[in-house]
What we know:
The protein is of the alpha+beta class. It has 3 helices and 3 strands, in the order αβββαα. Strands 1-2-3 form a 3-stranded antiparallel beta sheet. A hairpin with a 2-residue loop joins strand 2 and strand 3. The two termini are about 15 Å apart.
Amino acid sequence: MGKLANISGKDAAKAFQKAGWEVRGQVGSHLVLTKPGIKANLTVPQHPELASGTLRSLIRTAGPTVDEFLSLL
């Protein structure tokens, strides 16, 4: 399993977009992403560094494994 450290919100959002998620909008400093066929939304904070627990939760909601997510970075 890869290491989830020093990943910014901007980089995480780009990786999710490569996986098919689309930017729906922005609320304050949080980017909202949706994916056709999935009811859940991803709300990615646009912070310089995401907490590993927050990032793990986003990855779990999005569907890929941690290693698959890291390969999208």
